[in-house]
Amino acid sequence: MPLIEAHDLTKRFRLPVKSPGLAGAVKHLLRPRHEEKLAVDGIDLTIEAGESVAYVGPNGAGKSTTVKMLTGIVVPSSGKVRVGGLVPHKRRIENARNIGVVFGQRTQLWWDLPVQESLRLLGDIYEVPEDRFGRNLREVTELLELEPLLRTPARQLSLGQRMRCDLAASLLHGPSVLYLDEPTIGLDVAVKERIRQFIKRVNAEREVTVLLTSHDLADIEGLCSRLVMIDKGRIAFDGPLQEIRERFGRERVIHLILHEAHPGGVAIATDALRDLATVAIDQPEPHRLSVQFDSAHATAGAIAGRLMGVLPVNDLRLDEPSIERIIRQLYEGELRFAEEGAAP
Amino acid sequence: MSDGALAAPMRLRPRPKYLALALTSVQRAVAYRGTTLLNLLSSLIWVAMLYYLWRTVFAEGARIEGFAWWEMRTYILVSYAVNALLSFYSLARMTNAIRTGEVAAELVRPVDYLGAQLAQAFGAAVVEGALSSGIALLLGVLLLGISPPASPLAALLFFASVWLGFLVKFLVGYLVALLCFWTKNAIGLIWAQTALVNLFSGALIPLAFFPEWLRALALATPFSGIVYTPASIYLGRLDGLGALGAMGMQVLWAGALWLLARLLWGPSVRALDVQGG
Amino acid sequence: MPGRLVRMARLYWRLQLVHLRTHLEYEADFWIGVVGVALTHGAGLVFVWTVFQRVPKVAGWTLWEIAFLYALAIVPRGLVELLADGQWRLRALVNRGEFDRLLVRPVSPALQLVTQMSSIHGFGSVLLGAVVLARALDHLDIAWGPGQWGFLALSIAGGATLIASVNFATNCVAFWDPSANSAFPFLVQQSLEFAKFPVSLYGRLIQALLTWVLPFAFVSYYPGTVLLGRPGGDRAIGYAAPLAGPAVALLAGLVWRRGLMRYQGTGH
């Protein structure tokens, strides 16, 4: 049985429509007007135990509403949802025992308390038995190198230190699902990488299912094997990260480094590749040339072969598209899912 | 809110900075008029309590220290309206800015801190004053039958004295706010200050009702200038030279407190560095 | 069920202790808070004392009888400030989206909310109130025995429950209007001041309000008339006064449930 199961999950909000100013407020009081907003529009989502899933989408797409329904914070308007066999909003407290939640911008530590006191309190709140508490505490302390931080009050921690402690706090009770909301926001590159390594390890070794929402695409590439993208309340893509690359990443770039400056490079290359469907040829510097092409219509080998015949090529490099670029383009509406698989 | 910043005609000429600060404060008080109003209502609770209590005491036609029931009623409402200037919230705003370290942002601006605080407190007080006098007038005329100021001259002096009292109250509040450079518990300080001001300013009870020694003590504090002096002028219990003398005391206290505020400013700001924000 | 209650009690204790410890770390702040609030209530007492310098009785009440009611009003309030003041943080939690955190933990969010904050100055109210109570009992010539002690304890517990519940319910306004400011619950809490004096002094409208709408008369006046053995006031109501607390708590619970439902229905 899948760990997380949502079927036709929908959330409608009723928002008050208010005109600005005092007059508007009075008018609203006398005759309230509302408009409906469909935040999540009938999504189906199945996540197996042990998966690590990136849940992405532009702001306001319905990401956080979905996560709130999965965690039992928000009650769905319709549809079915189960996490670990429980309906989260009906059995919120039991569901809470099975999940860990990290909100990147809000700490769950007690502000004035030394970190270890906060962890101890959480142990009480989650009723973690003594032996398991000790084991988990040792493990996270070691992995996240918390030892020197334990006696520091949360308010004195740096952002990165705090995030490490927050991660530890969310795992003490041994949850089977970990919801991560922007876990690396505002951190420096080294700390980000460390946190990713840790999460990856937790996912692999402790088989904690991870659902990550993030705008940091390095998080997504580094942590997740599956990507679910939501846009305007609907699921726009759901599949392995690899598939995204294959479906939308047909565009390749070959970079050539020439033996010597070759001013007419673009013209020569254009001529040589006349019958191949190249997208663009560019010569950023006199001894460098880049050729952008669609991998469905031409192979890197064919292009490189022809160019090596007409130009003094010293070295070449092939750029595969990064998920980052693809997702960014998807966000910006440059790529459209409807176009997928459109015949050449 | 608006995307086109210049869609609305915007003033391009600068305003005198303290005036601008005061006006911003007026705007804020108007924007949060709900809060302002509810605050004034919550201080009305004590007005009601005082009213009923004194009504019982004066029921047998008694006079206390020359106060008849109609004078007492008037005193209660006038002292309410006067004391409403510079509310709990205005005081809390000053202390909070210091407590949270927001003060640092104000310190980098090319304005005198004391002057800027006064301008903002004044702006809020104009709104609070207008509202509280409105409420007092409404209640006073419709329900309680209060009397007008003793004479046109008394009215004039009363108005001047109210603002002198405001200045004293502001400076007391400002000095207490400076203490927050050293302590975290701002709310305790505000309470202590409010309690002392209420008791010794005459907001709770006319100082004349105190036993001799307590009255002497209260009159020796700057607090008596906040409510008792203007209220007494209103009722005509202080007039002529007496009124001018009391107002002179207000001026003296304001000057002394202003000087003290100036003197304490340096050490206070240095404490900010120690706390480290 | 009993197991759950024990667990809640234990957790409550743990969570509250945290605040106490933090507060005690800042010794100066602790005393400023205690003295500040004691002065606030003390100013009112000086006022009462001054009035009684002028007249021997007010509407048949003596100085120490009123002091007794006054103390009966501030002791429960102090207890609430000390033990259950977290309600006041609800608006901030909802506004900043931090309330979600309470919902993803396996403990009743109400318990977590109440323990969000403890106002150490409540200690000042309790202390001052206890001293005034003791002095009043000294001066008053009333029959006093174990029964009275018991009833006094019940009244204080009931009063504290009532005050905490009213605060809890009024702060739930945050669920309906998260942008609302703190003035409304604050205004309601301020009407507790009325309870410092016998409500029989006030007009009929205020008396009715303090009995049926904001039932703060049950904190001091009704149990006070019984303990002081004063004529007037309904005996039955007086003896039943400690029950008003739990009754209001039930109502507050209903408001909370509705609010929570709304929150979970709309997000924020």
Overall description:
The complex is a heterotrimer of chains A (344), B (277) and C (268). Chain A has 344 residues and is α/β, with parallel strands linked by helices. Chain A has two domains: 4-245, P-loop containing nucleotide triphosphate hydrolases (Rossmann fold, 3-Layer(aba) Sandwich), CATH 3.40.50.300; 250-320, ACT domain (Alpha-Beta Plaits, 2-Layer Sandwich), CATH 3.30.70.260. Chain A has helices spanning 21-30, 63-71, 92-98, 115-125, 130-143, 159-171, 189-205, 217-223, 241-248, 265-272, 300-310, 323-331, and strands at residues 4-16, 34-47, 52-56, 78-83, 99-103, 177-181, 209-213, 226-231, 234-240, 251-258, 278-285, 288-294, 313-319. Chain A has a six-stranded mixed β-sheet, with helices on both faces. Chain A has a four-stranded antiparallel β-sheet with strand order 11-12-10-13, covered by helices on one side. Chain B has one domain. Chain B is globular. Chain B is built from eleven helices and no strands. Chain C is mostly helical and 268 residues long. Chain C is globular. The chains are: A alpha/beta (344), B mainly alpha (277), C mainly alpha (268).
Layout of strands and helices, then pairs:
The complex is a heterotrimer of chains A (344), B (277) and C (268).
Chain A: E1 4-16, H1 21-30, E2 34-47, E3 52-56, H2 63-71, E4 78-83, H3 92-98, E5 99-103, H4 115-125, H5 130-143, H6 159-171, E6 177-181, H7 189-205, E7 209-213, H8 217-223, E8 226-231, E9 234-240, H9 241-248, E10 251-258, H10 265-272, E11 278-285, E12 288-294, H11 300-310, E13 313-319, H12 323-331
Parallel strand pairs in A: 3-7, 3-8, 5-6, 6-7
Antiparallel strand pairs in A: 1-2, 1-4, 8-9, 10-12, 10-13, 11-12
Chain B: H1 17-31, H2 33-57, H3 69-83, H4 88-99, H5 103-107, H6 113-144, H7 152-179, H8 186-201, H9 212-220, H10 228-235, H11 240-275
Helix pairs in contact in B: 1-2, 1-6, 2-3, 3-6, 3-10, 4-7, 4-8, 6-7, 7-8, 7-10, 7-11
Chain C: H1 2-25, H2 27-54, H3 63-83, H4 90-95, H5 99-103, H6 109-114, H7 122-139, H8 146-171, H9 173-176, H10 183-190, H11 204-213, H12 221-227, H13 235-240, H14 244-266
Helix pairs in contact in C: 2-3, 2-7, 3-7, 3-8, 8-10, 8-14
